[in-house]
Design goal:
flat, 4 domains, 3-stranded antiparallel sheet, single chain, 11 strands, alpha+beta, Tetrahydropterin Synthase, Chain A
Length: about 475
């Protein structure tokens, strides 16, 4: 019994282990959706040449993932829309154009391309894949535009799209992507060259339509003239038959026939003139249309020539300007630093001077207000306030003059009645400017209450008499 239980336990354990192994094997069998690529990496064997493969790609199938030696991830085949706003691409004619477009790309399911996707895109976010594809597309677009004229790009869109698709898809395959769709939104340029081409085509179509209308009018006029001619011929035949049957009215018929010929001649003249006028008008409009087309063609050739020459000159000019601006900017920065230091110092000095002048102006304003708004009186108040200082300054001029001893040999009366001693003292006192002259130098007059100065310029010279009073000699003026 014990042996039976032991045997049963062993078989149960074996069955449990076998079941676990089966469950593990079943869990390692992975299926891939049709919208995904399953990439198995790890130890995946070698290719036909004996080179170890980095990954194994399966699209829309299933595979067994070996435990411990293999792992797997999925690549999404969902299409990705990429907006490419190409600006300022340089064409073959050296004219910059804008080509906004949209591209739809996705991970390729081709065998070799799928291997590139597994090696280069596995584990990368969808946004990073879009940016990588966008960089490749921008580079190829610029390369294609540089090899084509604007006329080819604008008029032959199929050729342009074919070139874009071929170049872009070749580069995208290198990273495992394929190009699904290309949509060029619009093509424009800053110089207006494409607009000029459109206007030229529209002008040509309008001129062709005008020529066609003129030709149709001419055909209508000719047809109408032919119908009138046939009508007149039929009428003439009927009249001729009537004349044959009516011999009595031969004279009247002759007159009628002459009158008919006159009318026919006039009608023929008018028809011929009308036909020639219509022909001349048609030729005139045709010549005018050809002239406008030639003018438009000349403008286009001139624009092409200007683009070939001027754009190169503008590029060289721009390069020189940028170099000059860089050097000037360096010098300006050095000069700006020195100027800022000088400016700060001068600004501080200016603020001090401004503050001082402001305070002086406020004081002057108060003085003018005190003088009841009279500027002259205010100036006199200011100078009157400084009279004491002025007098003190005058006194200081001879204050420190030290005369220890004066020896005078006076021989008596001089030729004008004065002695040498009195002349010395008088000259010493005259070295100080009188008060009246001091006021005149300031542009003012001495107030009347301080006395008035006598103008003796027109009076006769006064006689002087020297007298000795109290031991001092005094000089008096007499008439």
């Amino acid at each position: 019994m014990i042996e039976f239980i032991a045997t049963a336990g062993i078989w149960a354990l074996i069955g449990l282990v076998f079941g676990l192994i089966v469950l593990v094997l079943i869990s390692r069998y992975k299926k891939c959706l049709s919208s995904q690529i399953m990439v198995i990496y790890g130890n995946v064997g070698s290719n036909k040449d004996g080179v170890t493969r980095s990954a194994k790609c399966i699209h829309g199938g299933a595979a067994f993932i070996l435990p411990f030696v293999q792992a797997y991830e999925f690549l999404d085949l969902k299409p990705m829309s990429i907006l490419v706003d190409l600006r300022g691409a340089l064409s073959k004619q050296h004219i910059r154009i804008d080509v906004p477009s949209s591209f739809t790309v996705g991970i390729s399911t081709e065998q070799g391309i799928m291997q590139n996707a597994a090696e280069r895109l596995l584990g990368i976010d969808l946004d990073d894949i879009k940016e990588l594809a966008k960089d490749i597309i921008l580079g190829q677009l610029r390369l294609i535009i540089a090899t084509m004229d604007i006329e080819e790009i604008n008029s032959d869109r199929d050729k342009f799209l074919e070139a874009v698709s071929g170049n872009v898809e070749t580069e995208l395959k290198k990273i495992g992507l394929r190009l699904i769709n290309v949509n060029i939104t619009d093509i424009s340029d800053d110089s207006g060259y494409i607009d000029a081409l459109g206007k030229e085509a529209a002008s040509k179509a309008i001129n062709d339509a005008k020529i066609s209308v003129a030709e149709q009018n001419r055909s209508g006029s000719v047809g109408e003239a032919n119908a009138q001619r046939d009508q007149r011929i039929s009428v003439s035949n009927a009249n001729s038959a009537a004349i044959t049957g009516e011999n009595e009215a031969l004279a009247k018929i002759s007159q009628s026939d002459a009158h008919r010929r006159e009318i026919e001649a006039e009608a023929l003249r008018k028809a011929t003139a009308a036909e020639k006028i219509a022909t001349a008008r048609a030729l005139e409009e045709a010549y005018s249309a050809e002239q406008e087309a030639e003018v438009a063609r000349a403008r286009r050739e001139l624009a092409t020539l200007e683009a070939d020459i001027i754009v190169k000159q503008e590029i060289e000019k721009k390069r020189l300007e940028l170099e000059a601006e860089a050097q000037a900017e360096q010098k300006r920065r050095i000069a700006r630093g020195e100027a800022d230091a000088i400016y700060s110092k001068m600004e501080a000095e200016a603020r001090g001077i401004q503050a001082k002048l402001t305070k002086q102006a406020e004081g002057f304003l108060q003085i003018v207000n005190a003088a009841s708004g009279n500027a002259r009186e205010a100036a006199m108040l200011m100078i009157s306030d400084k009279i004491e200082d002025l007098v003190s300054t005058q006194v200081e001029a001879i204050k420190n003059l030290k005369i220890d001893k004066v020896t005078v040999w006076d021989s008596g009366t001089g030729k004008d009645g004065t002695s040498a001693t009195s002349n010395f003292a008088s000259s010493l006192m005259k070295s100080i400017p009188p008060m009246n002259e001091l006021f005149k130098m300031a542009g003012m007059e001495l107030p009347s209450y301080l006395g008035t100065a006598n103008d003796n310029s027109n009076e006769e010279p006064k006689k002087t008499v020297n007298r000795v009073v109290g031991g001092l000699k005094r000089t008096d003026n007499q008439e």
